[in-house]
Every structure is written in structure tokens, then in C-alpha cells.
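User: For a benchmark we're assembling, each entry needs the component sequences followed by a predicted structure for the full assembly. Here are entry 17's components. Please fill in the structure.
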Amino acid sequence: MTTINAPMPSLSHRTSRWFSRNLIRIYAGLAFIYLFIPVAYTFAFSFNNAGKSNLVWQGFTLENWQNPCGAPQVCEAVGNSLKIGVLSTLLATILGTMIAFALGRYRFKGRKSTNLLIFLPMATPEVVLGASLLAMFLNLRVNPGFWTIVISHVMFCISFVVVTVKARIASLDPRLEQAAMDLYANERETFRYVTLPLVMPGIAGAALLAFSLSFDDFIITNFNSGVVSTFPKFVYVSAARGIPAQANVIGSAMFFIALIIVIVGQVVSRKRKKL
Amino acid sequence: MAFLHAVSTGKSATKSALKSRSLTPYLLLAPGLIWLVTFFIIPIFSLGSTSTMVRPEGAQIGVYVQELRFANYVDAFLANQDQYIRSFIYAGLATILALAIAYPLAYAIAFKSGKYRNILLVLVIAPFFTSFLLRTIAWTQILADSGPVVSAIKVLPFVDDLFRINNTSIAVVIGLAYNFLPFMTLPLYASLERIDPRTLEAAGDLYANGLTTFRKVTLPLSMPGVVAGTLLTFIPAAGDYVNAAILGNPSTKMIGNVIESRFFAVVDYPTAAALSFTLMATILILVTIYIRRSGTDELV
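Assistant: Structure for entry 17:
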């Protein structure tokens, strides 16, 4: 009796599981559509023969892509954003990686307060970070400009670098370093030839993250930029009277460049793993 | 002999390493921590100091002197309590919406994606590579009154002809949820991915159905991700002013909009500083309670 009855619930169980499995795939697909609709829209309208206001589709053209600097001040703003992005990424990656190694590799006094100091900037809304820095600059009579933007970007990128690199350090197999030491590598050699190469993907990922945070930041930048324009600032200011299609070109180009970097990085690290 | 030599140098090397070990962490920490103290901690005090300043009679615009006027906080809050409360309501709604979208997404990537897992993870972050302002502005056009979404909804029965999404609080919440979705998805994925699938099989073997397995096993095990994701969404959403400025209308203004306009349009630094300070303090209190309640202290 029991053996005859047994397949019944398991059958309905299987159908319900089949259903739920596919339901969740459909749901995930819809979530991806939600994520990508604005990206696709931005990309599509980079081909719009728009003239001044890029609001309504007015026909296909490649002109915006052939002449991305066509709209006034776009490329000046992008140039500033790139310079700020590179400088802040470099500084934040170095400073953050050093902190990550200290936290991941050493026992020392003040560890908890260090962790808290790293966590706090991430738990503070951007508007507060931006406003407090500006308050300090105003109190010190410092005129906001290019360097105050770099300072602010390094500040909010450090924590993200620390978290990313620290996670990578924590995932390392300590036996690899022990093996190097057993083979008479001293501490410096072990670090140089074993630890650092193993942590490198984490550092590269952190740098990419820092750059995209810096390049895309608007709120903190808006507070601390004075009259200096950046790409997000340019987009925000021109939103009122319609963004030129060239902004869509630059946004889309950044998207594809970053995507290629990430994919190449993944392929390279997978090949290394196979070796 | 060579062996002995190696051993002895090895010993001296570890000795000096131990010596330097006591100082090394501090040397590694110093530059970054000095940066954070100078450009994060000190500015917070600077903000606090500005918040109690007063503009002297007849002074130039933007000139304030310190008078330790703590009533600034009361004035600032009473004048802007609507925007203040609205910020937390919008941020809360956006967090719930983002969780509802991101949890199944993260679940699908962690358990149902097979060899496509890495590609899907890249796809979750990829929208980030397009400027978030461009994407937010794209939403205004997708949700426009004559746009595809609103036209499609208007076809439904019982929908008013005046129905619109743009420039409403719905649009602001949708925009907020959208902008911080990857911040929600990635921690959720990280905690779901760590779950051993055998624990789920075990639950099934013990006659738990799908729903019970989820409620009793998957969800509790993924709580660290839920806490991290909701915090990473709620905090920036509560302070955001871009979505409200682009997708909303004057009656959907959030506290960030007030702070921004107090700083730049009105040049009323003390009020802006008092509001920023109150916002930060409220968020820190909420976050502390939330972390304590959910018992995931390891986050900090």
C-alpha cells in the first residue's frame, strides 16, 4: 500500500519543483530586462539624428559616433572625468591595498577602530560626504576645483578598495605562502613572487570598481567641484534642456569598454587557472 | 655548511621579520587612514561646527559666524520634516522593491545558472558602466506620458486616462530601486552561493516542500546577504536627490534635494549642515539597531 502511494506526492512534488524552477528563471529574465532597458535606450538614442534635443526618435545616423565631441563642452567634461578617475583610482588603490594587507595579514591594536573607519564612509550617504567636505573647504577658505574632486573621490573609493582586496586576501590558501617559505624564500620574496601575484586579480577588480565609481560620481563631485565640469555634471546640467546625443555615445562607449575589460579579465584568469 | 648557513639566515630573517611585524601594519595603515581622517572625520566635525553658525545682521551672503546655536537643528527639522520623513519612506519602499526583484535574481544565478554563472554576474554589474544619470534620464523617457509603458497600462480597464508615472512618487521609488539594484543583488548572491546545495536536498529528504525549505533553510542562511543588501540600498537611497530631481516633482522632494538647494541655491550653510548631520545620525542609529536586531555583527 505504502509503496503504491509513495510516487503520488513525489510526482506532484516534481511538477511543482519544475514549475518553480522555471518560474524563477522567467523572473530572473524579467529582472535582467528591467536592468537593461535604460542601457538599451541610451545606446539606441546614441544613433538618433537628434539635433539639439534628444527626446524623440528622429531617424538613424552615425554622425554622433563619428563626432563624439560635436556637442559643446562634452569632451572637456569627459577629459576631466578621465583625469580625475585615473588619479583617484591610482591613489585609492595604493592606499586601500596597503590597508587591506595590514588588516588581512597582521594582528595589531586598533583593528576594530580601523574596520569601523573603513565601514563608516560606506554607511554615510553621499550627500553628507559631499556636504561635510565642502563645509570644511569653505571653513578653510579653499576654493573647490579639480584637486578637491580628486581628494573626495580618493576618500570614498578607499573603503571599496579595502573591502574588495581584503576579500581576495582572505580567500588565499595560506599553504601556498608556507610552501614558499619552506623553499627558503624570505618574507619579501614570498610577498613579491607568491602573495602579490595571487592578490593581483583582487587589486585589478578594486581598481576597476574605483574607476567606475569615480567616473560616475555626481553627488559628491557636485558639492566639491566649483566651476570644474565632469561628465556626470555635464549630463545633469544639460538634462533640463535635453542631453545631446553625444552624451549617449560616451555613455554607451564606456559601457562597452568596461564590459570588454571585465570579460577579458575573466578569460585571462580562467586560462591561468587551467595552467 | 650551506644548509646551516641557510638555516641561520632564515632564522635571522624571521627574527627581523618579527621585529618589523610590530611596526609594519601601522606603516601600511598610516597613509590611507590619515587620508580618511583628514577628508572624512575632520569634515564631519567641520559640518557639525557649521551647523550651529549664525549669519550676522547685514553680513554678506555666505558669511556665517559661530554662535553655537543648536536651535538651528530644530528650525531646520521643523521647516523640512515632510521631505525628511518622505526620504525614509521612499528609501524603505525602494529597498523592499529592490529586495523583491533582487532575491529571486540572485537565487537564480546562485542555483540555476550552471556554467553561465559568471556571465550573469557580469551582466548584473554591467548596467553600472553606463552613467547612472543617463540611465535615470532614460527612465523619464521610457515612463513618459506618451511613452510605451504608460500607453500599455492605459489599455487596461479601470485605468484613468490621466494616469501617469513620470513626475510622481512611483517614478522616484522605481528609479531609486533601479539605481541601487546591483548593491542589493551582489551581497544576496554572495550569501546564497555559500549555501551547500546538500542542505537543501536534506530538507527535501526530510519531506519539506519547496516553500518550507525556502522558509526554514534558504532564507535564514541568506540573512547576512539580506542585511548587507538592504543596508547598501537603503543608505544611499535615503540620501539621494538625483532620482527625486529627475523623476519626481516639487512635492516628491527628498531631504537630499533640500540639502543641495540650501547649499547652492539659498547659500544657507548652517541649515544644510544641520540637515546633513541629522540625516547621518538617523541613518547610523537605524543601521545600528538593524544590525543588532538581525544578529549579523560580523558585517562591521
